[in-house]
């Protein structure tokens, strides 16, 4: 699994984001998911079955955050990629899923991301602002059956 995050890398809205920053966000998110999935396929095929899990986001396929167009587009593209994988690979016993986490407080930080939480719920129709979720460790990792 590859996890890449950079809270300071908000790309900007469509008018504000440079093409270079747009491409950087797509490379960091969508291209990484594509290249890692493709690189893993020979090994997964040799095993006779497998699972590809992509860490997408609710940003993009479900909702949007102000000033983050490139990230939203990349994460929506990751969901599309994940949907296409089993269409081509099910014959080999390979499935794919996208995990789409929402907003949460950073594990190693005391900041609350209040600005981002407000942008999740901007506008009159959005309803009341909810607090961000809290991360908790899992009791034990999942094991394949």
Terminal CA distance: 20 Å
Overall CATH architecture of the largest domain: 3-Layer(aba) Sandwich
* Strand percent estimate: 5-15%
Q: Which term fits the overall shape?
A: globular
Helical proportion, percent range: 25-40%
- Helical stretch tally: 3
* CATH uppermost class of the largest domain: Alpha Beta
Structural class: mainly alpha
Instruction: Predict the CATH topology of the largest domain.
Output: Rossmann fold
Largest sheet: 2 strands, parallel
Would you give an account of this structure?
The protein has 145 residues and is mostly helical. It folds into two domains: 101 residues, Rossmann fold (3-Layer(aba) Sandwich); 29 residues, no CATH class. The protein has three helices and two strands; from the N terminus they run αβαβα. It has a two-stranded parallel sheet with strand order 1-2. α1 runs parallel beside α2. The longest helix has 29 residues. The chain is globular and about 45 Å long. About 12% of the residues have low confidence.
